[in-house]
């Protein structure tokens, strides 16, 4: 049986890497990407290849359309087409909106939201042609409720949620499902700036009394990619009951 192919953006570490490992273990061809940490990406590639699968590593800012286009040209050449797209690339900005420069705003939006448009617009034509495809967007609880001092990040994830719901309706007739996972506090490098006291306070707010694990996000993403063809347009919270 022909292997399926998955692209996970922003996958040199953290949630993206955990998702890549999950799909590698399940026998997919795995395409991984990051903007500039080539050393980490190649290390992840070597790890994935221990599962006897084909892995393609691509370094470049997929928030730039021409860069994303080159990535998809390479995917088509190597694997024919893409079966699963996981839009995980994302950055955060902590600080007051009034302290944020226009370039800071633009960088968050380009990385977190424009990259989703770029990859979806390039992946969809072949998915429509094949009458099959799964698109899973990695969102955040802040896209649902907003977070003080993370206005741009919240706006980008809120945009991703609306994008998910709208695109799901557009693609449902072609048997393509589009869903998002709204992550709560996940134990990754993105949260390592927290002091011990802040971390304790945060875990006390979460009914499950702990941060989520990247592997738990990966399990849900794989389930969405592998299972139900009637589940689409959903923003699925994975936050331990927090929000």
From TrEMBL:
Keywords for the protein's UniProt record, in alphabetical order: Lipid metabolism, Oxidoreductase, Steroid metabolism
Plastid keyword on record: no
Family: Belongs to the short-chain dehydrogenases/reductases (SDR) family.
UniProt GO molecular function: oxidoreductase activity
Cross-referenced InterPro entries: NAD(P)-bd_dom_sf, Sc_DH/Rdtase_CS, SDR, SDR_fam
GO biological process, any: steroid metabolic process
Keyword Repeat: no
Protein name: SDR family oxidoreductase
Signal peptide: none
Species for this entry: Mobilitalea sibirica
Domain of life the protein comes from: Bacteria
Pfam families: adh_short (PF00106)
């Amino acid at each position: 049986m022909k292997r399926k192919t998955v692209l996970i953006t922003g996958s040199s570490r953290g949630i993206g890497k955990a998702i890549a490992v999950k799909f590698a273990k399940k026998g997919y061809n795995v395409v991984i990407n990051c903007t500039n940490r080539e050393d980490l990406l190649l290390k992840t590639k070597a790890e994935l290849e221990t599962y006897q699968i084909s892995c393609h590593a691509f370094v470049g800012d997929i928030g730039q359309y021409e860069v994303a286009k080159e990535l998809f040209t390479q995917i088509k050449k190597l694997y024919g087409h893409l079966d699963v797209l996981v839009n995980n690339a994302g950055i955060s900005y902590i600080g007051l909106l009034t302290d944020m420069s226009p370039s800071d705003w633009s960088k968050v939006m380009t990385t977190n939201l424009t990259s989703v448009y770029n990859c979806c617009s390039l992946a969809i034509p072949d998915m429509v042609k094949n009458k099959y495809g799964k698109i899973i967007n990695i969102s955040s609880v802040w896209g649902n409720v907003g977070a003080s001092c993370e206005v741009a990040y919240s706006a980008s994830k809120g945009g991703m949620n609306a994008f998910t719901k709208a695109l799901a309706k557009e693609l449902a007739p072609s048997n393509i499902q589009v869903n998002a996972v709204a992550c709560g506090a996940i134990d990754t490098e993105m949260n390592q700036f927290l002091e011990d006291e802040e971390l304790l306070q945060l875990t006390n707010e979460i009914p499950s009394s702990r941060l989520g694990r990247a592997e738990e996000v990966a399990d849900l993403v794989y389930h969405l990619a592998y299972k139900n063809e009637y589940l689409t347009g959903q923003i699925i919270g994975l936050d331990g009951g927090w929000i």
